[in-house]
Design brief:
By secondary structure, this protein is of the alpha+beta class. The protein has four domains: 131 residues, no CATH class; 55 residues; 61 residues, no CATH class; 130 residues, no CATH class. The chain has 17 helices and eleven strands. Strands 3, 4, 5, 6 and 7 form a five-stranded mixed β-sheet that branches. Strands 1-2 form a two-stranded antiparallel ribbon. The longest helix is centred in the first third of the chain and has 31 residues. It starts with 9 loop residues before the first helix and ends in a 51-residue tail after the last strand.
Length: 467
Amino acid sequence: MTSSSELISAGVLLAEFDRALDRVEPRGTDVAPETRLEWLRLARRVQSRVEALTGLLTAEADQAQASLRTAGTPLASWLGMGETLSRREAAGAVLRARSLAEHPRVGRAASEGQINTGQAQAISRVLGELAAQLDANQQVHAEQVMLSLAAQLDSQELAGAAGRVLAEVVPVAAGELDGQRLQRAAELAHRQRSLRFFRDGASIRFDGSLPRLEGEAFIALVAAHHEARRRTAIEARDPLAEDTPEQRRADALIALIEAARRAKPAPGVGVARIVVKLDYDTLKTAAVGAGILTTGGEPLSAGDLRRACCDAEVIPVVLGSHSEILDVGRDHRLVTPPIRTALTQRDSGCVFPGCDVPDAACDAHHIEPWWLGGPTSLDNLVLFCHHHHGLVEPAKFTNRDQWEVRIADDGLPELLPPKRLDPQRKPIRHRKHGGTGRPASEPSTTRPSTTRPDPTQSGWDDPSLCA
């Protein structure tokens, strides 16, 4: 270990390192393969430590407002002035540095080479997610747990380790806290959803962000078209079968777009597939604890799960004591084609007042949730577009003043506004069911739904958002 008397400043070290790089021989001619691999491994370690040091220096400069004092400009702008960095790259560097500065132990571990920069960023993100649920001592404990996990987990695995951390730090309340975390993450993903297009000569470039549930469905669709094209090309001995994976995915997306242009939409087709995993002992004791995963292996928030299962294929998978698969049940369509047809005839699309999304683009929503034993029958189902389905679907961990739906005495759906809009919560209907968009003159005498508040954000109840 280096003594304090031997330590030098970051500036001196970096200047010496920069000069030393000028003396590096560009090509090693007579070097054994084993030596080349040793050099590569060492170079990557040095690169990671320098990146961590760069992040710490960036954070220190940001905290000291160095660029404002010397150049009168924010640090992100200052970085772009002296380097060929885009605004996005510069802003990202500052944000990552701030996250690193919030967890000095993580930054120190990265600069000492104990973890790489990818692991440091993953740890910082997880600790940021958990900060609101843990007190100061628990946050310190969580940081220690994450650093110990970094010895055996890569950055992607660390990014999904929040549940393991909670189980270690707060074992009694870990399940509920993890559910709350997943719900917050789902809400954040919804707020951050985006899609941008850029016309670039003869090409269209785009990027964006989707919530996990919808993103997994998109990946599954592209993957299905991708696999079909790959197999077809190989069988036909098509030279294009040697295209890159990125090119084949692009071809798959093009095929998906063409299929969507030609297809006649069928209600209920292309619904989500939910895999419910129960270990054998849990199954024997008839408990309801289960691991709910998307086909990509990621956990869903409770709200996303309930919304997806309203009109999904539910497949039970029974696991043994060593997580081996003992049995895979047949999928169960919760809404049968005859019920869907009757539902379409009654509702003719989304029933939320002011929404004109057609029935083919709607989900079948259980008024009394299926997970509380609600029947899959016409008098317990209504059609909602994706946006308004999220608005009325109940969630477990919050107390939001939300919209509710029920079936009135005449067999037609009506909605109860949240108290913030109508303290008396007088029911309103879609105009196709004789509604005016205003509270009815007399409230229905039918029982309200058993929905519980959903954590969706204010502004979700704007009908114009569901176009």
